Amino acid sequence: MKSAMRSKDSARLGAIRLLLAAIKQKEVDERLELVDSDIISIIDKMLKQRRDSIEAFRNAERKDLVEKEEFELTVLQDYMPQQLTEQEVEKEIIDVIKSTGANSMKDMGAIMNILKPKLAGKTNMADVSKKIKTKLI
Questions:
Q1: pLDDT, the chain, mean
Q2: Do the Cβ atoms of 103 and 132 come closer than 8 Å?
Q3: Which domain range does residue 127 map to?
Q4: How much is the pLDDT for 82?
Q5: What total of structural domains would you count in the chain?
Q6: How far apart are CA 94 and CA 135, in angstroms?
Q7: d(CA 55, CA 73)
Q8: So what's the pLDDT on residue 16?
Q9: What is the DSSP track for 72-115?
Q10: Which string of b and e fits 12-34 if b means at least 16 CB within 10 Å?
Q11: Which member of 36, 45, 102, 128 has the greatest number of CB atoms within 10 A?
């Protein structure tokens, strides 16, 4: 935040302030000190909001707002753990499907419950869900 202030990068500073405000709000609401996994879930939620906003603004042909949201998205992604590759995600999905013996869409919830703690913050869980569906059909 200090480097953004020093370089007078107001867009980056605004995105960082949004993140800090969300973290502080969560701490105040729940009256506890957040750990890294809590902060990652907050950032992940903010990333999802940005992706949804980008899609909505594209549909409304608001290029100015799309650019703003995309910038915030890139700033927030800088604070996430290193993302897994497509192959690593595929391997995790296949391993869990084999270990649980899942063979239908009824098993989707069980698979997601196992994968979510392993993959949260390291990949987009909506994409993981889509990949699981293609494997179970």
A1: 91
A2: no
A3: 86-136
A4: 87
A5: 2
A6: 9
A7: 13
A8: 94
A9: HHHHHHTTSPPPPPHHHHHHHHHHHHHHHT--SGGGHHHHHHHH
A10: bbebbeebeebbeebeeeeeeee
A11: 128
Provide the 10 A C-beta neighbour count for residue 133.
11
Distance CA 115, CA 100 (A): 12
Residues across the chain: 137
Token output for 43: 């950032």
Cβ atoms within 10 A of the Cβ of 95, count? 13
Instruction: Using the predicted structure, report yes or no on whether residue 102 has a pLDDT greater than 90.
Output: no
In the prediction, which pLDDT does 81 show?
86
The CATH number of residue 21's host domain is: 1.10.1510.10
Task: Answer yes or no: do 72 and 18 share one domain.
Answer: yes
- What tokens does 65 get? 């707002």
Same domain, yes or no: 98 and 122: yes
Partners of 123 in the beta sheet?
120
Residue 135 has pLDDT above 90, yes or no: no
Whether residues 64 and 112 share a domain: the answer is: no
